[in-house]
Amino acid sequence: MLAPRFRSRLINQLSWSKVLPLLGCDIRTTCLPATVQCPLCKQDSCTVLSIAPGQGEWAFCTSCLTAGDMISWAARCWSTDRRTAAARLVDAFALREVGKTDLDRDTQWYEFQESISSLWQKCRQPVVSHSGDLRWAACLLRLNWSSANVWYAGAGQLAGVLSKEEIQEHFPGFGALSRRWEEAAVVALHSLPGKISSFLTILRSTDGAVSECYQVPDPSGLKLGGFLGLEAVIGSDHPDFGNKVLLVSDPLLALKLHGHNLAGEKQLLPVAGFCMEDAFTLNVGNGLLGGKKVYVWSPVISNDLFLLAKKVDGWIITDEDHEGSYWNDMTHANSHVWVARKFCLAQPWQKALATYLESQDSSARGDLLCHLQLSEAERDRLLECCKPSVREMLIDLDRNRRPRSVSVGYKTRIVEQSGCWYLQYDRKHSPQGLLLSDAILRIDQIVRFARNNKRLYEGRILYKEQEVPFSVTASPRSKFRTRTAAWMCDMLIDAGLGALHYLPCKCPRLLDVALSLHKPAIVTGRDRCGWDEKENAFIFDGFSISARGKVETGISVHAPLIPGRNLQPPPGFTSISREQLCFLSEPNPLSSLVWTVTACVLANLLAPLYNRTTTGIALLGDGASLVGPQIAKGLGCVESRYSAADEARHGWPIVLAVAREHLLTKQLAVTGPHNCVAVISHYAAAVLGIEVGWNWVMCDCASSLYENDDVLPLIVPAYLVWLAQREFRLPESSSHAESVLFSLVDWFKSLGGQADYLKNSPKLLYPDQPEGRRHKVVVQRFVDLLFRMLADGYVRIGLNIALGMVVDGNKVFLPKQEIIRALAKRSLPPIATGVVTRALHEEQILLGEECIDGISVWSLDPAWWKGTYEPWVKRKNSTCRVVN
């Protein structure tokens, strides 16, 4: 069966974070890898991983052993075929650009994958006709043969046998590798659980001889490397080796180890085999081996071995075995001992690489480092492990390079030499050639922004042993990209170094020359701080924190109003002093205000991770109004006048600059949801918080931070690293902001602090509620608004409905126009009376709506009024709170 030539683009448009909620799963985080509830068995054992760029996501459940892409999961949950499930998903998400051709291609692709899986299941079935022919496979692996049943209980779980006809049917043309053969031992390599990437076949000729081992790639063309025994290294920890897993570059050796072990213990060793030529394409950077301590072994050390160890940030076993002694006969006992011995001989990949570089010449060192493409942080860790002589060699490696050159035509080259560019022909005009430019353009980095066509070029102009650094954002028609030499000349003149000498009629664009002679680093442009779903990390200006809690420095963000520039990356965030712990542990209004504002800011920063919208933060009361903005700025928020574009630019809340309240409220009332920190009155907070979600932070007595504000930049990075290590699990609570606050308490306790008082009353946080409970917070804020209007004299209580509110025995009438008129006196917009009516009805406070003398009124429950208003008058400055 031939594979389809093209794969459908449909699977790449069906994001797992959209499909799984449609199947009844509660998605708590959008970062991958993620563990969610299985839609079929309802156990929290379903793991979601990315397959490859443009190939969608893959989910597998360790409880019900179900695996597949998002369309396969939908088909199983809906008990239908794949094409019907795909069509339903297209309709559900209104994917208008997907047509019948895409559905046909997806169906063909799935049928081909199913045929490959069926072939693998078939070749492992205990067939009596094969029992006499399996001895050669056992002999090849040097396993003792007793019976076919013993084979299928041991190595037969990971290998099978296929006839020549069966293989040629599924892999046309494979028989040309060897003409005289009749059957083959087959081993499947899996790139993901349940996803076969290729087959390893060992052919047996008609005369009984065993021919060479061949790898048959999946003809579907994904070109992903795979493992033999993948299920042994991604499951639960091994009882003897814990979370350690061993990757060996010989799949047959892994099969032999498992065969010995299964014959005795009926349990797989934490070992997986792979082919070294597939090391570059192994899909291990997607969290497949998350939580495991990975050890890599190969009988011969190679550049690809270090590349794989770098990908998994693992350990390397450096005992080279050139004579193949590892293939000596092993009993059950020494297979287990062999694995344990390898673990003992391992060392971190940086240290192994440093040792290996000492034995290589300068050329081999340069080729290896170029192959690894180390980041700045990885290079620094490598230099720490090197001896002084090797360290100096690595630092000076770029200084001893030969002159670079590039061909630009028939017998024409451009050579970089002595700080200039020369044009050389077959007939030389001079020993060096024609002087093309007496300055060199060096592009160090190109930042590509996905949102527009522009690119940011960062580099230097090298001119007579001097440098002119530059950072320029250029569109395709800009002077920098079309007339580079003229741009360089202007830069040198502006820097006061001189005019560029170049040949405008001879040379091509100098930008093309620069890119050909020195390959720049191509990075994805970061123009937004906060959670980045594509990079699976929190992005800051200077560093990032991945979903696993790994901190990477050297990150730069190019955008206006960049938040978080005062935050301290490692090791700064680990240096919270004892005095700072004591300050944050004191149960006083100031420390409570710090924690509450921090929780609200972090709730917005974490909102996209939990599929939640951001929420405005209202600072109420003298203490919150004075100290709250200072706290928010210390946490990384930037101050700005209100702008919907600035508010949505980053994942951080912006601190709104002081403005006229009625103008600011009118601006905020027409947009939403919000991501800002605003100092406003109770009246404005009620108007905004009734229709659109806002978190209230209320504090009347809080002194200045003085010298304690230096702890604020340490909180956010430290907490995010801690939360990532806990897989972003938040305590249960009625609101997202409260869950973050309680999580902050647990993190602070892990540092030796104490903030349990935040979980007890009274609290400073009055959070918004989710949709199912939002009527409660609407009533709370409307009642607080009404009571303050009564206390301030905006609304009066009397016996005539035309003069104000009526409270008389068993009657409580509230004219709607009185609330709107009172807000108009403060130049504030009206409240959403329809939202208030529904909320009062949900809380069983509203007896009905009436029209008295042409005035629309709410008829409220007298018993509720008496039990709520009188206690509030006694407190007067308090705020109503939602009662669970």
Structural features, described:
The chain is of the alpha+beta class and 884 residues long. 37% of the residues lie in helices and 20% in strands. It contains 31 helices and 36 strands. The strands form 8 sheets. The chain has a 6-stranded mixed beta sheet with strand order 27-28-29-26-30-31, sandwiched between helices. The longest helix is centred in the first third of the chain and has 24 residues, at 100-123. The radius of gyration is 34 Å and the shape is globular. The two termini are 62 Å apart.
What is the topology?
Layout: H1 10-13, H2 16-22, E1 34-36, E2 46-50, E3 57-61, E4 67-69, H3 70-77, H4 82-92, H5 100-123, H6 135-140, H7 148-153, E5 160-163, H8 164-170, E6 183-192, E7 195-204, E8 210-217, H9 230-234, E9 244-248, H10 251-264, E10 271-273, E11 293-297, H11 303-312, E12 315-317, H12 332-344, E13 346-348, H13 349-358, H14 362-372, H15 376-385, H16 388-395, E14 404-409, E15 412-417, E16 420-424, E17 434-437, E18 440-448, E19 455-463, E20 466-474, H17 479-482, H18 484-494, H19 510-517, E21 521-524, E22 530-532, E23 537-539, E24 542-546, E25 551-555, H20 578-585, H21 589-606, E26 616-620, H22 622-634, E27 639-640, H23 644-649, E28 654-656, H24 661-669, E29 676-679, H25 682-691, E30 694-698, H26 712-725, H27 736-750, E31 765-766, H28 774-792, E32 797-798, E33 805-808, E34 811-815, H29 816-825, H30 833-842, E35 846-852, E36 855-860, H31 862-875
Parallel strand pairs: 9-10, 9-11, 11-12, 18-21, 26-29, 26-30, 27-28, 28-29, 32-33
Antiparallel strand pairs: 1-2, 2-3, 3-4, 5-6, 6-7, 7-8, 12-13, 14-15, 15-16, 16-17, 18-19, 19-20, 22-23, 23-24, 24-25, 30-31, 33-34, 34-36, 35-36
